[in-house]
Structure formats: C-alpha cells, structure tokens
Amino acid sequence: MCAAPKQGQTIPAGVDVEKETVLTGQVVDAAGTPVPGAFVRLLDQSGEFTAEVVASATGDFRFFAAPGTWTLRALSSQGNGTATVAPEGPGIHGQDVTVAQ
After folding, report:
1. In sequence order, what DSSP letters do the residues of 8-75 get, joined into one string?
2. pLDDT tens per residue across span 8-25
3. Model confidence over 53-77: pLDDT tens digits?
4. CATH entry, 21-93, from 3.40.50.150, 2.60.40.1120, 2.60.40.2470, 1.20.120.450
C-alpha cells in the first residue's frame, strides 16, 4: 500500500486556484468508508441553501464558493452528517463529512 497522502479530486484545467475558492471533500461513514451518491448541500452562514451536488462513486464532492463560513450537509441512505468549513481566501479547502444513522 502506498503511503502517499490522499490527493482528493482533480480540479478542472483552467481553474485558477490562486483566484478561486474551492470547497472539496469526501462523504464517509463512521468507519471511513466512502459513501457514494450522497446529496451534499452547501449552506451559507445564515443556514440558507446555496447549492447541492451528488457525491461521486468514491464519495467525493466539490463546490466553488466565496470566502466565508459554510456548512456542508450530507444526506444519504446510510445517514446524515454536517461539517463546517471557513476558507479565508482562494485555494483548495478540504473538509470531509461523516454520516451516521
């Protein structure tokens, strides 16, 4: 097994991470197993719905957002979970979401 750190999703060519704020992560269960097909919602600081994506077959998700405080809410048949991420500027900001019944 390779000891390299997890690399996450590939960012599309043409995305300048020096200017864009990218929120990325993986939906996992309590054992750390990826949860594919989870609905991942992005909520702003006041809790208002902003966007939603479906996690990939490996549980990965990605949003393009502005700096600030965001809530990530994952909904799946394996349970739900919430995490907060607060990027202060451009770049790739990783935050996994763990779901539980």
Report:
1. -PPPPTT--TTT-EEEEEEEE-TTS-B-TT-EEEEE-TTS-EEEEEE--TTSEEEEEE-SS-EEEEEE
2. 566 666 666 678 899 999
3. 999 999 999 999 999 999 999 999 9
4. 2.60.40.1120
List C-alpha distances in Å: 58 to 1, 4, 48, 53, 55.
Answer: 18, 18, 27, 14, 7
- Angstrom CA distances, 24 to 10, 32, 72, stand at 10, 16, 10
3-state secondary structure at position 96: coil
Residues 96 and 52: their CA atoms lie apart, in Å, by: 15
